[in-house]
């Protein structure tokens, strides 16, 4: 998971200084620790003691497992509870409960998540992300697009990127040369990566070096149809439902923890082309939903292969 | 909402006495009060102080409204936190926060909810409820069926009721004579009522005298198609989606707070008969889902016409 | 596919004799042949020449394949087009076009499909089928239930079977002894078999000897989770959607042509028990939908692994 | 419904002349007439006699009504069956059966449908249509956008329109001045109109003068929530499902024949803003699906208030 940096002043530095006027900000806190009695009490007591008003809580403790997960939303006055104190308070609670995770985020103060988007030849997911971003529905900063395919300058994507000042890096790949070092260099300052139908497999070495989350969209309903041409695989298998899966990338291909899945019906009337079109529609929705949930701190890893999605 | 009586010994009195062996029970608490800072803290602190371990919390505070809603699930040892102390602790918290609602329920100790089911001529909802009940999927005691239609003794329903010792009360109705007094007499010891396609309108006087919740299934997607023959209305309106709605009954016909809604697609190929068949299938699922949520204390009234369904 | 026998008088012999009164019956015809120009013309011309009035047609020719599929519904007067002439007319057309399939069925004249249902320990699919049958929503005759598990006489299922005079055959199985010969003996006069969570694998020898269709419900979304414990497999895989699949049984386990699939959402809140409960609900709906489509002659094999479902 | 003009040469004039090389085109024919015996036979015989190969047929005759609807797709060789002969053949059949409708369309030869899109302040439907059009997923020519709101030149929409040479006509409206004459002047050469969240009501006079189909998207699940602010109405009504409806425009507000409807779940967690966002997502999908079906000749009026959608 990604921690929000509190050291730099956010885009709303003005607000931070107008603390003389009591103004409430919205905070999100996620917590994951070994389960014991009293976690909710301590967390909520901390928030209350700082004048914070909780307006949403989700707590989940799996059956027979000893892990505690929570996600809280609260309103607070930064005049009374400054951002850095907020940070240290929750870190303290994290240490108290030996937490795997104690992350707080204040969307209106903290820098937006910075992402890079990797794509190959297929356009649809990248375009959909760019449109949503431009409409304000994707709360991230897009640092660059990286692709192993070129795109002509007068295409919709390239013109869009040019107008919005988003760099496009063409890094051709070949067997044995995934350009991973160069990719790392381009993305090291991002908070997470989005593979928007990027068809190259990132190595374990890359994932370890990058060290942060990578979200992928797979155009099939995992664990069915891993690997290539899932639409073709589904078509040949005679399924009546096709789907898309967004998941965290791990070393194992198409096997990382699933974040979201969506399906649509197909019938004998669907040919491979309409399988693909329906799949593309699902991929767009499924990927953007996963990114949105992730940015809202709703997604937490759960055991080896699962996620809690609050 | 219904409070679970803690004064009578439940079916599991044996367990209550085996408190020498530490055994954890599952408790559910719902709370509704004017929103202030510190409610979650106080509630969770109370549970923790009694050794209770929270494993699920849902908190909801609507935007700009001043109401706080929560639903918590926790494990507790009745040796350490006896049922009556549990009850009084939460009542105390209710008074502290001037709560509209502070209800705790321990499914394994408290008596099951006792319901009466009212039906008219249509069988499908009653039959579905009886089957689910018999399979253990409907955690209620059915005190009786009340109907304004007779049913022949050798029908599936009547044989089922006979075998399980559930009385069937035939109370014919006529304009001006809804038999409400007699119904009240039969249902006064129930926790809530289920109208399973009961086609008579219960008066405001009845609802007030009964004083507890009444759940109805309407065979249309409210607020469309209120009143009679919603399938016919939908068929004539040329809709492409039909639905069912389960809701609390109020004086206003088909206008009480909605608990659950379900839809299914229809097309030109559907005639009135298939509209009705699809509707019946939805009604069964929608009604049983509403009852299940209600019994699990997931349903809370929200403003005049809505519900929170955790 | 199953051909309807026209030699025996159906349950509606009375109607067959009242042909002096012009009365229209509903006929269904399915046709599958190598695609050429003029098939629809010939089929519809045949129907029209006999005074039949087509009220529904579905024609499907896959892209680049050379197979023609059609399903027609028409109204006809048996006084003008007797049942046996109907049969021979469509057989003639079948020969004309070298058809793999030319099947006509008149639900109101022909005997109902006769099925046997095989089950193991799990009850829910059998019970659901029996209820639907009893309510008239499953247009088959159930010749018997065959199970490799015993059921106590006072259980709901056994009482139901007793009341309706449906035999229950307990045939215990062991590795190396699938009792297939005995099963064959019991089912040889059925039109098709339904495996309602029957957990034994029928051998290729059995399928060949039986020679008719066998419909199975698999409690997973094929091709994911073949074989045993698909709910457990799905639970461990961290999927967000679970499903059920009804399909024709072939020698290869869980790989025969898929007829219908249904899904439902799951989340971290679902434990294995609720995965199973949601799955059971899907299995019931998916299996009965497949049987209904099959009985209405809507299901046709398509290439090696698929179906056309009109 | 719109008839495709065969008099003008389509974009594929080149293909039309290369008839010396046998090449098959794809034709779509829809037919609506009083139901009698033999319609399918005559239609299919006509196609077969011209060497046309039918690969898809949908026939629908409503219960107890006397209307016959069909939609056929067929492959034909224009060398053998020229476009103008195709047209006259089907017109002849139309006269033979006294048809309300006998329309044939050859997408690869005929001009694309020409539409104008009307919008008000809300952007999302227009933008989605433009994107789909630009990606080749909306098989129409967009002659212009007409709006009663201005848009700044550097907005995404305006830049897009400029780049693609699509005129934007700002026609401000006021009570008593709907600018309908000017709109008529701008749209008279279109095949149909799309109201993409155009908030003015077109008068009966306009509809009559325009004389062709007008498709509207209503941001509510009709017949619920007609008129203004359906999201607000739905929010206040406490529904658990919201939807969008695309329909033909008639004189009666939001009451014309429904073409398509889509729903999405909402809960207490949704505020008015998320109701609107979910609604916008549905509106985009619902409107484009309706336009796609319409362009493929799948939508036929059925009785006063319904549609057949093949």
Which CATH C-level class of the largest domain in chain A is it? Answer: Alpha Beta
Oligomer: homotetramer
What does the largest sheet of chain A look like? 7 strands, mixed
Give the strand content of chain A: 25-35%
General form of chain A: globular
How many structural domains in the coordinates of chain A?
Answer: 2
Instruction: Determine the structural class of chain A based on helices, strands and strand pairing.
Output: alpha/beta
CATH superfamily of the largest domain in chain A: Formyl transferase, N-terminal domain
Number of helices of chain A: 9
Low-confidence stretches of chain A: 1-20
Mean pLDDT of chain A: 91
Keywords (chains A, B, C, D): Hydrolase, One-carbon metabolism
GO biological process, one term (chains A, B, C, D): one-carbon metabolic process
GO molecular function (chains A, B, C, D): formyltetrahydrofolate deformylase activity
Organism (chains A, B, C, D): Carex littledalei
